[in-house]
Amino acid sequence: MIDVQSLAMRYGPVVALDGVSFQANPGEILGLLGPNGAGKTTAMRILTTYLYPSSGTAKVDGIDILENPLEVRKRIGYLPETLPLYADMQVEEYLNFVGKARELSSKSLQERLGWVREACQLKSVWKHLLCELSKGYGQRVGLAQALIHDPKVLILDEPTSGLDPIQIIGIRSLIKSLAKEKTIIFSTHILQEVEVLADRIVIINEGKLVAQGTKRELAEKVLAQGQSAKELSLEDIFIQLLAPRKTVNA
């Protein structure tokens, strides 16, 4: 469903991505993990055709992001780190606007509005102005706009940022249920989110791919003598993979 090949992004002398390749399969939740500044957001912006890479490319649902970006955008729902919210609009008004921009028919739009209102738990703030919302409710509206057109692919940048524990559990449950029929990539620097949600993990640091695989596969890369994969937490794995003196093939 998503095939990333040798993506590189340079801003003058600064290398944000350096030849990164990975895949995400249909029905899979892929966690993009790395410290702040690792290149996760840059990779997502390239996949959504917001940025044009210095080199390399990617395909989404078989469509090249460089050759046909408009068709790629139709297949993607994107929740960026900075939410695209218009403060003077009501929640319903904003999502209605997004649905029309996505060229949904009147009937489909009403069905999708009802669905995202329930799925993202927005009923209590449906008529509120966006400027009146807490950060947590703003995040839910951001997720709703990513889902309004029922995309095949979801790309989520820090999807649980600003949510309280109950809201986080709800969003996790929603993401897992959506994965039954969608491909989902989400980025985070929070290890617990990846451990709970991701089927596979891609670790990026300083623009480079460090490792990728299931948690067990990553654990096997860093096992010390006498250890078993079950004994290693994701935190242990992450620290060892990013240790400067340790080199691990992706």
- Separate helix tally: 9
The N- and C-terminal alpha carbons lie at a distance of 21 Å
Residues in helices, as a percent range: 25-40%
- Roughly how many Å is the radius of gyration? 19 Å
CATH superfamily of the domain at 2-83 and 152-242: P-loop containing nucleotide triphosphate hydrolases
Strand adjacency order, main sheet: 6-7-8-3-9-10
Net shape: globular
Q: What is the quaternary state of this protein?
A: single chain
Number of β-strand runs: 10
Offer a few descriptive terms:
24% strand; disordered C terminus; alpha/beta; six-stranded mixed sheet; four-stranded antiparallel sheet; 250 residues; Rossmann fold
What does this structure look like?
- There is one protein chain.
- This protein has nine helices and ten strands.
- The chain is 36% helix and 24% strand.
- Residues 245-250 have low confidence and may be disordered.
- Strand 4 (55-60) and strand 5 (63-64) form a beta hairpin.
- It has a domain at 2-83 and 152-242: P-loop containing nucleotide triphosphate hydrolases (Rossmann fold, 3-Layer(aba) Sandwich).
- It has 250 residues and is of the alpha/beta class.
- The longest helix has 14 residues, at 106-119.
- It has helices spanning 40-47, 69-75, 91-101, 106-119, 135-147, 165-178, 191-197, 215-222, 234-242, and strands spanning 2-11, 14-24, 29-33, 55-60, 63-64, 76-79, 153-157, 183-188, 200-205, 208-213.
- The radius of gyration is 19 Å and the shape is globular.
- The strands form two sheets. It has a six-stranded mixed sheet with strand order 6-7-8-3-9-10, sandwiched between helices. It has a four-stranded antiparallel sheet with strand order 2-1-4-5, covered by helices on one side.
- Helix 3 crosses helix 4 (106-119).
